[in-house]
Design goal:
Layout lengths: L4 E5 L6 H18 L5 E5 L5 H8 L5 E5 L16 H6 L4 E4 L2 H7 L3 H13 L3 E6 L3 H5 L3 H13 L4 H4 L3 E4 L13 H19 L1 H6 L2 E4 L4 H8 L6 E4 L6 H8 L4
Parallel strand pairs: 1-2, 1-8, 2-3, 3-4, 4-5, 5-6, 6-7, 7-8
Helix pairs in contact: 1-2, 1-12, 5-7, 7-9, 9-11, 11-12
The protein binds 2-phosphoglycolic acid.
Length: 254
C-alpha cells in the first residue's frame, strides 16, 4: 500500500523562532489528533532543518524536508546547500522542481534530473513537482507537459530508485491563487501520471508511488481531493503556515 502524505511547504516564510514554535504546535497536534496512517512532512527553510529534526525525534508520524538542494556533491558554489548537508541535519525529504524554482531560478527538467540523482545518492527522498501553467492548460497541452516533465526529470532512474520518489502534481495556476483544481481535474491528471509510471516501470511500482496534489489545498477542499483514488495526499503551501489549518488538512485521512 502506498503511503498517504500531507507535506507542508513553508516557502520563504518563518524566522527561526517562528518556525520552531509553529513546528512545536504541529507535532503536538499530530500526536494528539492524528489517528490514521498518514505521514506528515514539514519542508522548512534550511535554517530550521536541524532544530526541527531534533524536535521531531520520537514522533514517527512526522518527517522533515528541505525545499531545494544543489545538483553537485560539494564544491565552489557560494551560497548553495548540498544534499549531503541536508541529510546531515536529520531531514529525510527534499522538494525538487517546485514551479517557483522552475520559474524564478530557471530550473529545467535536465537540471532536475541531476538534482534527483544527487538527492537519492545522499539518501534523501525527492518530492518531485510537476505541473502545467494556465496557458498550457488553456491550449490543452497539459498532458504533454506533465509527460515531458516526468520523463525528462525522472524516467532515467531504475525502478528501485524511482520507488523512492514522491510525485507532486501542482498546476501552476492553482498555486497561491485560491483557485484549486477540481477533484475531477486533479484525479484525471493523477491517473494519467500513474498510467505513465505503469508504462515505464510496471503496475507494482506505479501502485506504490505516492502522488500528492498541491495548489490552494485547504481544509474545505482536501476531503474531496483526498477521496480520489489516485490522490495520495497534498503538498500544502499557504495553509501550512498555521498549525490549525494544516492539521485540519492532515486529519482528512483519519
Ligand atoms: P499553496 O502552495 O498551497 O499556497 O497554493 C502550494 C505549493 O506551492 O506547494
Amino acid at each position: 500500500m502506498r503511503k498517504k502524505i500531507v507535506a507542508g511547504n513553508w516557502k520563504m516564510n518563518m524566522d527561526y523562532e517562528e518556525g520552531l514554535s509553529l513546528f512545536s504546535e504541529v507535532i503536538n497536534m499530530v500526536h494528539d489528533e492524528v489517528t490514521g496512517k498518514q505521514h506528515v512532512v514539514v519542508c522548512s527553510p534550511f535554517i530550521h532543518l536541524h532544530s526541527l529534526a531534533h524536535l521531531a525525534k520520537g514522533y514517527n508520524k512526522v518527517s522533515i524536508g528541505a525545499q531545494n538542494a544543489h545538483q553537485a556533491e560539494s564544491g565552489a558554489y557560494t551560497g548553495e546547500i548540498s544534499a549531503k548537508m541536508i541529510h546531515s541535519t536529520g531531514a529525510e525529504y527534499v522538494i525538487l522542481g517546485h514551479s517557483e524554482r522552475r520559474q524564478y531560478f530557471g530550473e529545467t527538467n535536465e537540471l532536475l534530473a541531476k538534482k534527483i540523482d544527487t538527492a537519492l545518492k545522499n539518501s534523501l527522498k525527492p518530492i518531485f513537482c510537476i505541473g502545467e501553467t494556465l496557458k498550457e492548460r488553456e491550449t490543452e497541452k497539459h498532458f504533454e507537459v506533465i509527460k515531458t516533465q516526468l520523463e525528462e526529470g525522472s524516467f532515467h532512474l531504475d525502478a528501485e530508485q524511482f520507488g523512492k520518489l514522491v510525485i507532486a502534481y501542482e498546476p501552476v495556476w492553482a498555486i497561491g491563487t485560491g483557485i484549486t483544481a477540481t477533484s475531477a481535474q486533479a484525479q484525471e491528471i493523477h491517473m494519467f501520471i500513474r498510467k505513465e509510471i505503469v508504462k515505464k516501470y510496471g503496475q507494482e511500482v506505479a501502485e506504490n508511488t505516492t502522488i500528492l496534489y498541491g495548489g490552494s489545498c485547504n481544509a474545505k477542499n482536501a476531503c474531496d481531493l483526498f477521496g480520489q483514488p489516485d490522490i495520495d495526499g497534498g503538498l500544502i503551501g499557504g495553509a501550512s503556515l498555521k498549525s490549525r489549518d494544516f492539521l485540519d488538512i492532515v486529519k482528512e485521512f483519519n
